[in-house]
Amino acid sequence: MNSTRHQPLFFVSLPELQKLCAATVTLNSQIPETETRSTQIKTCRQLLFLYQEILSAPVMGTLNQISVVMAIPFYESGICQAYVERHGATLEAPQTVTPALLQTCLSYTLTARLAPRWNKAGHLLVQGKDFLSHSGRQNAVVIDLNVSETQLCISVEPCSIRLPPPELGDFDISANTVKLFDSNENTVIQQHSILSNWCYVLPSMKMGQIINISHIIPPESPFRSYKDFQMHWKSLYGYILPEDLEETKTYLSVYFKPIGERFFTYPLSCIRSQPVQYFPRTDAEVVMNSFLSDMKSNFSQLCGFPVKMTSKALYATKELSRASVHEIKPKHTKLDGEMVCVVSLTEAPPRKPALPGIPSRCSTEKSHWMECLIKEPGAHSSPSSSESPGGVSIGATEKSTSNKQLPGVPELPAAKSLGTPVNSAFESTLPKVSKIIPIFKGKLMQMNGRITNQTDRKKKESAGRHSPMKSVITGNKYLTCETLTSKPTLPVKESNMEGSVKKSGARRRQKEEGYSKLKRAKRSKTST
After folding, report:
1. pTM for the complete prediction?
2. Neighbours of 240 (CB within 10 A)
3. Is the sign of the CA dihedral 506, 510, 516, 520 positive or negative?
4. What is the pLDDT of residues 443-481, one digit of tens each?
5. Which residue from 307, 309, 431, 439 has the fewest beta carbons nearer than 10 Å?
6. Residue 247 CB-half CA count within 13 A
7. Sign of CA dihedral 387, 390, 393, 398
8. H helical segments located in 433-495
9. Assign residue 258 a region: left if phi > 0, alpha if psi is -120 to 50, beta otherwise?
């Protein structure tokens, strides 16, 4: 992977947050505990597919709550309330919409509506509804969203991957056992016959342990046929499970240590024996254009308000300089398209969500910010200080106050890609306004390192020795750092003051010992 590549950035205008409202849906408490999570996801997806005016996402850390964002007139229409009541759930009072909450709901809604053309697999979106049965290279993208008060910034990283479906031999099962399993549908491969029982489970790509493999669905499973699995995976994740013409199917019972003794049943097509394999690609623009075309068709409006997105990608170039401890000076960077930016090399504190009970997903992964000003070559600018929506004081340049910004409709710059001027996504000519450009950390490099570390930790637990060098991933670059070890310290010479203090203390102790000896001698004479 090329760690020095630039991430394509796209900007989308957003409606004013004051025109939107948010609410929390709480599911019926009578739902069985084993079905709560699936009911939460199904209800969330039903809301965003039934009503294009709604953005929704499961509330992080809960199994029975859903966050919804909609326009105030749509809330007042009572459509959402009627749907919630029909399903025995409750809808809390509306609240104001924060950028953090809008980002959470936008991310989940966009991912759900892109399936099955782009399917979630870990942090990736893999192209093609038949990706589960594809064994060769496949197109994929990693998207990252960042929402401010007036705009949405989308980072798109195209990549080429392999995520082939597994074979039983991949889990170190002997050939005789596999042959017996294929010939008899009542055969069950137990855990002691599966020498490599770790697997990756879609769509999260989390690791679990295979307990057994069989042709028959276990009786404790809530599913009774392969058709039930197909409906379940389509309604929860948008997956299209392959149509297996064979009468015998293969099912795996998987154990997850954090969950406990409960086993989960998966079709073989939803399991992977190895992590994602990445390959360099030369047609990144083709993949990106295909993804953008699908995204625009599913993202023409937001809560009933029309949105517009830049037609060409912008690429931020960073030039960081070493700064002193006491003062951090902003360093100018450039965007292709004559964008002049000012980067603040300070880490933004995490945002505090304004809505109670709805955690923020503006995590520290996006904690570095830079605020840029779109300016024409030769335009006069003066440095000033402004505050970003995240609450971070960032140095920026401002234009003269003659140009005024239209409320709620930020204008996107006329960008240049590889020196070629392109038109803005906006049809009308608007005055130049400042943009907030978030610096996204490359998720492809982070994922690759995280998966490698997780695989090594799971499959090599018996290794007792560790290398004194560790590979640490920060942003888009690998850094090598040494493991800290305690070393014997060299003796330090005493200062004059310390020496005099120690000498005076020794003299004092000698005098006290002399006095105590004299007292003991007098006592002995008196007693005799």
Report:
1. 0.65
2. 18
3. positive
4. 665 555 555 565 566 555 534 433 333 333 333 333 333
5. 431
6. 3
7. negative
8. 443-459
9. alpha
